[in-house]
Amino acid sequence: MLAAMFSGRYENNLDYDQDGNVYVCYPPSVMMPLMDWLTACQDSTPQTQFPTIDIPKGQEHMWDGVVKFFGLETFREQPRMFSGVQTNLKINDLKGWRVALCKDGTEITPMADFNVPEISQYSAVLVGAKKPGEDELLLAAIGRFDAIATDGNRNHQHNEVYWTCDSQRFCFSNRPLGLLHSGGQKNKVQVESSIRLCAWSRCTIDCLGPEFEKVLMVPNQFITC
Question: Which residues lie across from 199 on neighbouring strands?
Protein backbone atom coordinates (compact mmCIF):
# COMPACT_ATOMS: atom_id res chain seq x y z
CA MET A 1 0.00 0.00 0.00
CA LEU A 2 2.79 2.43 0.85
CA ALA A 3 4.57 1.63 -2.40
CA ALA A 4 1.37 2.34 -4.34
CA MET A 5 0.67 5.57 -2.46
CA PHE A 6 4.08 7.03 -3.28
CA SER A 7 4.51 5.58 -6.76
CA GLY A 8 3.50 8.90 -8.35
CA ARG A 9 0.35 7.48 -9.88
CA TYR A 10 -2.00 8.61 -7.11
CA GLU A 11 -0.67 12.05 -6.18
CA ASN A 12 -4.00 13.70 -6.96
CA ASN A 13 -5.87 11.26 -4.68
CA LEU A 14 -3.75 11.78 -1.56
CA ASP A 15 -4.53 14.19 1.26
CA TYR A 16 -1.93 16.87 2.05
CA ASP A 17 -1.45 19.24 4.96
CA GLN A 18 -0.67 22.94 4.60
CA ASP A 19 3.05 22.21 4.24
CA GLY A 20 2.55 19.74 1.41
CA ASN A 21 3.12 16.61 3.48
CA VAL A 22 0.97 13.56 2.79
CA TYR A 23 -1.66 13.24 5.50
CA VAL A 24 -2.32 9.80 7.03
CA CYS A 25 -5.22 9.52 9.46
CA TYR A 26 -3.30 7.54 12.09
CA PRO A 27 -1.36 9.10 14.99
CA PRO A 28 2.47 9.00 15.27
CA SER A 29 2.18 6.60 18.24
CA VAL A 30 0.95 3.97 15.76
CA MET A 31 2.69 5.03 12.55
CA MET A 32 6.20 5.36 13.99
CA PRO A 33 6.36 1.76 15.31
CA LEU A 34 5.13 0.66 11.88
CA MET A 35 7.88 2.67 10.15
CA ASP A 36 10.50 1.28 12.55
CA TRP A 37 9.31 -2.26 11.83
CA LEU A 38 9.37 -1.78 8.05
CA THR A 39 12.91 -0.41 8.28
CA ALA A 40 13.97 -3.43 10.36
CA CYS A 41 12.41 -5.74 7.76
CA GLN A 42 14.34 -3.98 5.02
CA ASP A 43 17.61 -4.49 6.90
CA SER A 44 16.97 -8.13 7.86
CA THR A 45 18.72 -11.03 6.11
CA PRO A 46 17.97 -14.78 5.94
CA GLN A 47 20.61 -15.26 8.64
CA THR A 48 18.89 -12.93 11.13
CA GLN A 49 15.63 -13.42 12.96
CA PHE A 50 12.68 -11.65 11.40
CA PRO A 51 11.87 -8.51 13.43
CA THR A 52 8.77 -8.41 15.60
CA ILE A 53 6.05 -5.77 15.52
CA ASP A 54 5.85 -3.62 18.65
CA ILE A 55 2.12 -3.05 19.20
CA PRO A 56 1.48 0.15 21.21
CA LYS A 57 -0.22 -0.55 24.53
CA GLY A 58 -3.80 0.58 24.72
CA GLN A 59 -4.02 1.13 20.96
CA GLU A 60 -4.53 -2.43 19.83
CA HIS A 61 -7.82 -1.58 18.08
CA MET A 62 -6.24 1.26 16.11
CA TRP A 63 -3.26 -0.96 15.33
CA ASP A 64 -5.64 -3.52 13.81
CA GLY A 65 -6.90 -0.79 11.50
CA VAL A 66 -3.36 0.14 10.42
CA VAL A 67 -2.47 -3.50 9.78
CA LYS A 68 -5.57 -3.98 7.63
CA PHE A 69 -5.18 -0.68 5.77
CA PHE A 70 -1.57 -1.36 4.77
CA GLY A 71 -2.18 -5.02 3.94
CA LEU A 72 0.00 -6.54 6.67
CA GLU A 73 -2.43 -9.14 8.01
CA THR A 74 -0.06 -12.05 7.39
CA PHE A 75 2.56 -10.43 9.65
CA ARG A 76 0.40 -9.49 12.58
CA GLU A 77 0.76 -12.75 14.52
CA GLN A 78 4.20 -13.73 15.70
CA PRO A 79 4.73 -17.48 15.27
CA ARG A 80 4.50 -19.35 18.56
CA MET A 81 7.91 -20.81 19.37
CA PHE A 82 8.94 -23.56 21.80
CA SER A 83 11.89 -25.84 22.54
CA GLY A 84 12.04 -29.58 23.08
CA VAL A 85 9.51 -32.21 22.07
CA GLN A 86 5.98 -31.07 22.90
CA THR A 87 2.87 -33.24 23.21
CA ASN A 88 -0.86 -32.73 22.63
CA LEU A 89 -0.75 -29.37 20.86
CA LYS A 90 -3.92 -28.05 19.25
CA ILE A 91 -3.13 -26.95 15.70
CA ASN A 92 -5.53 -24.01 16.04
CA ASP A 93 -3.54 -22.80 19.06
CA LEU A 94 -0.31 -22.60 17.04
CA LYS A 95 -0.80 -18.98 16.07
CA GLY A 96 1.41 -17.71 13.30
CA TRP A 97 1.84 -21.18 11.74
CA ARG A 98 -0.02 -22.87 8.93
CA VAL A 99 -0.15 -26.48 7.74
CA ALA A 100 1.91 -26.90 4.56
CA LEU A 101 1.72 -30.70 4.39
CA CYS A 102 -0.39 -33.41 5.98
CA LYS A 103 -0.17 -36.97 4.68
CA ASP A 104 -0.13 -40.60 5.69
CA GLY A 105 2.73 -41.19 8.09
CA THR A 106 3.53 -44.68 6.81
CA GLU A 107 4.98 -43.26 3.59
CA ILE A 108 8.77 -42.99 3.78
CA THR A 109 9.47 -39.72 1.95
CA PRO A 110 11.86 -37.87 4.28
CA MET A 111 13.45 -35.11 2.19
CA ALA A 112 10.73 -34.79 -0.46
CA ASP A 113 8.28 -33.73 2.25
CA PHE A 114 10.26 -30.52 2.74
CA ASN A 115 9.86 -29.35 -0.86
CA VAL A 116 7.66 -26.42 0.13
CA PRO A 117 8.22 -23.00 -1.51
CA GLU A 118 8.12 -21.14 1.83
CA ILE A 119 11.02 -23.17 3.27
CA SER A 120 14.56 -21.88 2.80
CA GLN A 121 17.84 -23.04 4.28
CA TYR A 122 17.42 -20.98 7.43
CA SER A 123 13.65 -21.29 7.89
CA ALA A 124 12.18 -22.56 11.12
CA VAL A 125 9.72 -25.40 10.51
CA LEU A 126 7.36 -27.23 12.83
CA VAL A 127 6.98 -30.98 12.35
CA GLY A 128 4.76 -33.46 14.14
CA ALA A 129 2.22 -36.24 13.95
CA LYS A 130 -1.50 -36.50 14.59
CA LYS A 131 -4.31 -39.01 14.33
CA PRO A 132 -6.36 -38.80 11.12
CA GLY A 133 -9.30 -36.41 11.37
CA GLU A 134 -8.06 -34.75 14.57
CA ASP A 135 -6.58 -31.29 15.05
CA GLU A 136 -4.16 -32.14 17.85
CA LEU A 137 -0.49 -32.90 17.31
CA LEU A 138 0.46 -35.90 19.44
CA LEU A 139 4.11 -34.92 19.20
CA ALA A 140 5.70 -31.80 17.75
CA ALA A 141 9.07 -30.07 17.54
CA ILE A 142 10.51 -26.96 15.92
CA GLY A 143 13.86 -26.73 14.18
CA ARG A 144 15.80 -24.70 11.65
CA PHE A 145 15.65 -26.43 8.28
CA ASP A 146 19.39 -26.65 7.67
CA ALA A 147 19.94 -28.05 11.17
CA ILE A 148 17.29 -30.78 11.12
CA ALA A 149 16.98 -31.94 7.52
CA THR A 150 20.60 -32.58 6.57
CA ASP A 151 21.09 -36.06 5.14
CA GLY A 152 23.36 -38.08 7.44
CA ASN A 153 22.22 -36.46 10.68
CA ARG A 154 21.97 -38.87 13.58
CA ASN A 155 21.01 -37.63 17.03
CA HIS A 156 21.89 -34.09 16.04
CA GLN A 157 20.87 -31.95 19.00
CA HIS A 158 19.15 -28.71 18.09
CA ASN A 159 16.55 -26.64 19.97
CA GLU A 160 16.61 -29.24 22.79
CA VAL A 161 15.57 -32.01 20.36
CA TYR A 162 17.52 -34.95 18.86
CA TRP A 163 17.10 -35.07 15.08
CA THR A 164 17.90 -37.95 12.73
CA CYS A 165 17.72 -37.73 8.96
CA ASP A 166 18.94 -40.20 6.36
CA SER A 167 17.81 -41.67 3.04
CA GLN A 168 15.17 -43.85 4.74
CA ARG A 169 13.67 -41.76 7.51
CA PHE A 170 13.26 -38.45 9.24
CA CYS A 171 12.58 -38.45 12.97
CA PHE A 172 13.01 -36.54 16.20
CA SER A 173 12.96 -37.47 19.88
CA ASN A 174 13.73 -36.06 23.31
CA ARG A 175 16.47 -38.68 23.86
CA PRO A 176 19.23 -40.02 21.59
CA LEU A 177 17.87 -42.77 19.35
CA GLY A 178 20.29 -45.36 20.72
CA LEU A 179 18.30 -45.53 23.95
CA LEU A 180 15.44 -47.13 22.06
CA HIS A 181 17.28 -50.37 21.39
CA SER A 182 18.91 -51.29 24.69
CA GLY A 183 18.89 -55.05 25.27
CA GLY A 184 16.13 -55.58 22.75
CA GLN A 185 13.55 -54.36 25.29
CA LYS A 186 12.23 -51.55 23.15
CA ASN A 187 8.89 -50.91 24.85
CA LYS A 188 10.30 -51.21 28.36
CA VAL A 189 13.08 -48.73 27.66
CA GLN A 190 10.62 -46.31 26.10
CA VAL A 191 8.42 -46.20 29.19
CA GLU A 192 11.22 -46.07 31.75
CA SER A 193 13.10 -43.36 29.89
CA SER A 194 9.96 -41.37 28.95
CA ILE A 195 11.14 -41.29 25.37
CA ARG A 196 9.07 -39.27 22.93
CA LEU A 197 9.81 -40.39 19.39
CA CYS A 198 8.23 -39.26 16.15
CA ALA A 199 9.51 -40.90 12.98
CA TRP A 200 7.95 -40.15 9.62
CA SER A 201 7.60 -43.86 8.99
CA ARG A 202 6.02 -44.57 12.38
CA CYS A 203 4.89 -42.71 15.50
CA THR A 204 5.55 -44.01 18.99
CA ILE A 205 4.30 -42.43 22.20
CA ASP A 206 5.02 -44.32 25.43
CA CYS A 207 5.06 -47.61 23.48
CA LEU A 208 1.71 -46.87 21.81
CA GLY A 209 1.77 -46.96 18.02
CA PRO A 210 -1.44 -45.58 16.50
CA GLU A 211 -1.75 -44.89 12.80
CA PHE A 212 -1.01 -41.25 12.23
CA GLU A 213 -0.53 -38.47 9.74
CA LYS A 214 2.70 -36.54 9.45
CA VAL A 215 2.34 -32.78 9.57
CA LEU A 216 4.68 -30.06 8.36
CA MET A 217 3.91 -26.46 9.36
CA VAL A 218 5.54 -23.23 8.21
CA PRO A 219 5.39 -19.78 9.83
CA ASN A 220 3.42 -16.94 8.27
CA GLN A 221 6.61 -14.90 8.24
CA PHE A 222 10.29 -15.77 8.04
CA ILE A 223 11.63 -16.82 11.42
CA THR A 224 14.59 -18.90 12.51
CA CYS A 225 15.61 -20.66 15.72
Answer: 171, 202
- DSSP assignment of 25-38: SS-HHHHHHHHHHH
Tens digit of pLDDT for each residue in 152-193? 888 999 999 999 887 767 889 988 877 544 444 433 333 334
- CA pair distance 223, 1, nearest whole angstrom: 23
Q: What is the CA radius of gyration of the chain?
A: 22
Q: Round to whole Å and give the CA distance between 218 and 205.
A: 24
Is-contact 202 209, C-beta < 8 A? Answer: yes
pTM of this structure: 0.64
Domain boundaries, the chain: 2-75, 86-219
| C-beta of residue 102 within 8 angstroms of C-beta of residue 79 | no
Query: CA–CA separation, 81 vs 223, rounded Å?
Result: 10
Q: Checking DSSP bridges between strand 196-199 and strand 86-90, what pairing results, if any?
A: unpaired
Beta bridge partners of 214: 103, 129
Of 202, 90, 67, 218, residue with least CA distance to 145: 218
Task: Specify whether the CB–CB gap between 134 and 109 falls below 8 A.
Answer: no
